[in-house]
Amino acid sequence: MRIETLAVHAGQRPDEGTGAVIPPIVLSTTYERAADGSYPRGYIYTRSGNPNREALEESLCALEGGAAAIAFSSGSAATASVFQALAPGDHVLAPSDCYHGTANLLRDVFARWGLQATFVDMTDPAAVRGALQANTKLIWVETPSNPLLKITDLAQIAGLAHESGAICACDNTWATPVLQRPFDFGVDVSVHSTTKYLGGHGDVLGGMVITRTADDFSQRIRQNQMAGGAVPSPFDCWLVLRGIRTLPYRMRAHAENAQRVAQFLHNHSAVEAVHYPGLDDHPGRAIAARQMALPGGMLSFQVRGGRDQAFAVAAKVRLFTRATSLGATESLIEHRASIEGPATRTPENLLRLSVGLEHPDDLIEDLAQALQ
Ligand SMILES: *Cc1c(COP(=O)(O)O)cnc(C)c1O
């Protein structure tokens, strides 16, 4: 089945009890036992299983083409569950350009737990090869990356991981399975912040881990979900599943708008650089064309000047909202260096855009007046 059909139907069927076409939200935390002590419907207690959560897991498992999907209460909890499935003393290779929360987890939380991490330029295979250690168990990839929109060759990095007995995980939040299916390129684990495009409306926090095969590793993540307890609420699962129904059409519109906005910024004299994998001069353009259906809805650009000039542009926009996060219907603009803190390597003149579903001409007019 094609992804548009999967988005509408996978994990989504009328409720057996009532015939409701849109499934009800099951809020009960506990389930009745039969007289013989068994649980005839399989549900015991909502931390270990809930119908809304199972439906969401089934949907994303189908969209990614995986064998197991495990839902969490946030993207960060999903990421942490993958690191927790490793052992103290193991080594992780992570991108030098990635979601700052992921880098902070490795540096601040898991370092204390004995997990070693090295940050490398994932777009440079020689650097990745050189950073591999005998105890490297995981290569973490994020593509397109945050906030520089670097493109990592998934097949190449997954190949390097497998050569050295490691697994490869991809944070697929920015692309979504509509634009990029990491398992097609040999990646073992796909991770999402469902807070972003999958939820799609800026009103729910969630995360998901999907694995290509059902094995010990996916079992450990399932165990982290149940024992660690960072599970999403039934309502949160219901909201993300509702968002997924329109995901393929939203992603196409996000990408179309972002391409228009990127082209406009690229031609503007007040703009020093635009980072968008749909532009001809983007260094990852060819890889993106190979592994992504479209270059996506996120871009960043550097204003001529420095921090003050970037702030001045962000202060003048009217349609774009100054806010963090991404993937919802409304366009957002953000000065990333200020949210990433003093350790950031993000240029001070960089602004990141989450291009929403407004008409692209309105977005371009807004940026034009802000850049004047
Ligand atoms: C937002 C985000 C996360 C973290 O997800 P939360 O739901 O905020 O915990 C991880 N990776 C990427 C690429 C993100 O954009």
Characterize this entry briefly.
It is built from 14 helices and 12 strands. The mean pLDDT is 97. The site of pyridoxal-5'-phosphate has 15 residues, from helix 3.
Examine the secondary-structure arrangement and name the CATH architecture of the largest domain.
Answer: 3-Layer(aba) Sandwich
For the record, the count of structural domains works out to 2
Mean pLDDT: 97
Strand portion, in percent?
15-25%
CATH superfamily caption of the largest domain: Type I PLP-dependent aspartate aminotransferase-like (Major domain)
Main sheet: which strands, in order across? 1-7-6-5-4-2-3
Note the gap between the termini: 48 Å
What does the largest sheet look like? 7 strands, mixed
The level-1 CATH class of the largest domain: Alpha Beta
Q: In oligomeric terms, what are we looking at?
A: single chain
Radius of gyration: 21 Å
Structural class computed from helices and strand pairing: alpha/beta
Name some characteristics of this structure:
seven-stranded mixed beta sheet; 12 strands; five-stranded mixed beta sheet; about 375 residues; alpha/beta; 14 helices; single chain; binds pyridoxal-5'-phosphate; Aspartate Aminotransferase, domain 2; Aspartate Aminotransferase, domain 1
